[in-house]
Amino acid sequence: MQIEIPSNSDFSEHNLPFGIFSTEGIKPRVGMAIGDHVIDLLELLRAGIIDIDPELLKQSTLNNLIAQGKQVTNKLRTKVQAWIKSDSSPLGNQSKVFIKQSEVTMHMPVQVGDYTDFYSSIEHATNVGTMFRDPENALMPNWKHLPVGYHGRASSIVVSGHDIHRPKGQTKPKGADAPVYGPSRRLDFELEMAFIIGKPTELGQSITMENAHEHIFGMVLFNDWSARDIQKWEYVPLGPFLGKSFASSISPWVVTMEALEPFKVQGPIQEPEVLEYLEQKVLANYDISLEVGLTPQDGAYNVISNSNYKYMYWNMHQQLAHHTVNGCNVKVGDMMASGTISGKDETSYGSMLELSWAGSKTLELNDGVKRKFIEDHDTITLKGAAEKDGVRVGFGEVSAKILPSL
């Protein structure tokens, strides 16, 4: 072992996620996370530890590397894993290989060509439907028959640490006769995860439940920022637009599906039975614990939600199979988000909309701070990790501060 890995690290030798990093002397290129460090894969190549086209490691996104296929990325990851686990170091000089994470800048891991957001947590959909319709008709008639989703804005997806300005737009205050223009007053986070396409398809081709896993490279944490008041006024009849497109934030490290393999679990029972093209063939839900924290300006970190990705009613294989059943093609780097991940009680709700029940309740935080929705200078942080039998595979975090409107 060349470096010490903290026992509670998200980035154990079982993980080794891919990302894009830079330093003052290094342009953005491919690295892996291990403990509190980044492994510079180009330096590993120069040391003769790995064998791969160096041009793939010099890229400012992972797209070209991912496009080589899992036979290449898996080989690279397992080679590094074997080297990390080795008792003897084959390197005389480690300083160029291991760089402290505190000394690097992380960048968007992939160039996102297209982004789709799903609506696949039955708890979240039921909560929202109960708030705005009634408990008896909380779910729309199609909800249990297909993974509901919409095509979002890829250009406004940013990496953790990129602060977000409060969006402006039209809203229609309660009791008003006409809409008004101004900053959103009901700014929200959405606790989500997203998977990244690693194998493309041609127009007209559908991805099946049997081969969906071949097309998914890995996952990130995803915060789908939402302006609830803008969204409420604009979404009929065509769905989300300006209330969503102003920003989404992701974690910088892409955790591979191979690293998550030990954490597969059975998903919720789906009733009524789904149509044949959505029938589950293998386990595709994952036991990943999730946390949301809110930090006011100059204030303390408050845990406001604890949820789990295993709650998803529609899993990623079903989402991808449905997404492409009409022949829609996908490309390497495309990102597909889960939709808000809520659990079965109010401590596990994945949005302020639910935590404050559309503003009818107040969250009591540390130091007397109170919130219904997100205020300027609040920082929202999402964390996630899977743990089983002493093996921990985590995602780090995605964090961003809300700034006043421009």
3D architecture notes:
With 406 residues, the protein is of the alpha+beta class. It has two domains: 18-106, SH3 type barrels (Roll); 115-403, Fumarylacetoacetase-like, C-terminal domain (Fumarylacetoacetate hydrolase, domain 2), CATH 3.90.850. Helices cover 17% and strands 28% of the residues. It contains ten helices and 26 strands. The chain has helices at residues 41-46, 54-57, 63-66, 70-85, 122-132, 228-234, 242-245, 257-260, 316-324, 352-355; strands at residues 18-22, 29-34, 37-40, 98-100, 105-107, 115-118, 149-151, 157-159, 164-165, 168-171, 180-183, 187-188, 191-197, 216-223, 226-227, 248-250, 255-256, 264-265, 285-286, 289-295, 302-308, 335-337, 363-364, 370-371, 379-388, 391-403. Strands 6, 7, 8, 13, 14, 16, 17 and 22 form an eight-stranded mixed β-sheet that branches. Strand 25 (379-388) and strand 26 form a beta hairpin. The longest helix is centred in the first third of the chain and has 16 residues, at 70-85.
Topology of this structure?
Layout: E1 18-22, E2 29-34, E3 37-40, H1 41-46, H2 54-57, H3 63-66, H4 70-85, E4 98-100, E5 105-107, E6 115-118, H5 122-132, E7 149-151, E8 157-159, E9 164-165, E10 168-171, E11 180-183, E12 187-188, E13 191-197, E14 216-223, E15 226-227, H6 228-234, H7 242-245, E16 248-250, E17 255-256, H8 257-260, E18 264-265, E19 285-286, E20 289-295, E21 302-308, H9 316-324, E22 335-337, H10 352-355, E23 363-364, E24 370-371, E25 379-388, E26 391-403
Parallel strand pairs: 6-22, 8-16, 9-26
Antiparallel strand pairs: 1-2, 1-5, 2-3, 3-4, 6-7, 10-11, 12-15, 13-14, 13-22, 14-16, 14-17, 18-19, 20-21, 20-25, 23-24, 25-26
